[in-house]
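Before relying on records like the one below, remember that each one covers exactly one chain. Contacts with other chains, cofactors or solvent are not represented anywhere in the record.
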Amino acid sequence: MEREEFLKVYRHSLAHILAKAVFEIFGTDTQIAIGPQIDDGMYYDFALPRPVTEEDYKTIEDKMTEILKRKEDWRREEISRNDALELFKDQKYKVEIIQDLPEDELLTIYRTGDDFVDLCRGPHVENSRDLLSVAFKVKGTSAAYWRGDSTKDTLTRIYVFAFPSKDELKAHLAWLKEAMERDHKKIGLQQDLFMFQDTAPGMPYWLPRGWTMYRQLISYSRELQDKHNYQEISCPLINNKKLWLISGHWAHYVNNMFLIPGLSEGTKADDEVEQDQSAGPDFDLESIDTMAAKPMNCPNAMMTYKRTVHSYKELPIRYSEIDVLHRKEKSGQMNGLFRVQEFRQDDDHTFVTEDQIESEIEDIMNLADEIYNTFGLTYKAEFSTRPDDFMGDIEVWNRAEASLKKILDKKYGEGNYEINEGDGAFYGPKIDLQIKDALGREWQCGTIQLDFQLPANFGLTYVDKDNSQKMPVVIHRAIFGSFERFIGIITEHFKGAFPFWMSPAQVGIVPIREEHNEFARDIENLLEYNGIRAEVDLSPKNMNDKIKNFRNLRDPYILVIGDKEVESKTVSVNIRGVKVQLHDIPVDTFVEVCKKMNAERTRDLITEM
């Protein structure tokens, strides 16, 4: 049996053991829902007579071990619909599952020993002894809606880690501990980078330190795009419904858009409504007056291109845009900076002729190489093809997919990239760039999407060499993707110890006593004059407390100023992550070191001066 299949079978089987254990502990009032395997174990959902506490975790683990030691046989049985309904008549969730299955569905049950039965397709182990070598541990609990529906019952979900050996479980728990220490939400709080408030769910407040870092990313992005001849534009954040109808987003994306409904016909506008505000105006989503906050920049880029007649000599035309975007998400999907409702991204829409596609995408991928290398990130490409709800002519899609495949074959070699069948955008196929972080996790950040549809929807043209009207192809492109999400990723990747060039504050300055403050301020001013972000602590706190504060903020360098430094016009330098302090460093030397790291955007700090 292949490892993945083995993992699936034993974790799924262990989910049944978990259900049996919970049933034996909590009694016959327990209602059992569903329990699938997941990447690091499994979970099972229950309706229980009382809440599960942390004190119950060890009890559940011990009961599971006890059940496994019984070495009970597992028996698969096919069963009729009526017999299944009778067998599970006291289990409301099982009954609902059975009732929702097609009439001709083959129903199977698994019996574990003589006293436990569960509705399941399997497969499972033949005997519980097969699971005795498995290492498992209760991870925790959470509330979960039955079938993910907030209008249905709230159940208790019990998670359990499960791995083939104790060593693998131990390694996974160590990995989780490291991941928790790298949690960007925790680091963001510690370093005062950003915050969230329930008055604006999923919309981060960027605090001064965090916004400083954010601006460094935008500045870096703009610098590179200037070198590659991009033109930056800015467009309205709210557009009329008719724009989204033309683009096709109204049909495909309206449920993820923040809408400003129009007024129903005959309804008075706000300034005409009578003093009794309880009734309020009647809103109508079908009204042509309906507006929507833009979830993406594409339609506005089309309108910008369409404003004038273009010649083939002008192409490629590259419109970059970093305007604020809004996408409505379910509350359970939002997760710190990883999934937000307000964000910016390094968006671009490039208008090309068909014969420019290959060279333009090659340039984009070279740009991606440069950006990801700056952060020490590796990536792989994934090719996503036509989805079921595609727009346009299938022959145009075939041409677009062939173009992207040719580019990927040339860069990586045929078969050396992943293909995601049916995962393209509704308007065209795409290449997604998956980066890997320090914990080995993969994140989809960059995307390159080839689009023959929106230019047709908006009637975009250019004048070709023979004076005929031709339609341009649009390349949608982002490399950072959402800046919010990218900052969350690199916060965890660097564990809050950001490269010098993008650190919120690059140098912390610690005068030992009050008489050293003036020289400390002079150094701060000199650093700031040279484009180096510095902060000086002039408080009456002792030196060690000041140093500790800057270390907690993960400032790359901490300068200590005392009598000797004032007299010799030098600094003593504490370097983040290095135990040995540098002494007698001339101020001008330190400034040049910092300027070099800013200019070269190096990841590693210079430790010798």
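The longest strand covers residues 135-145.
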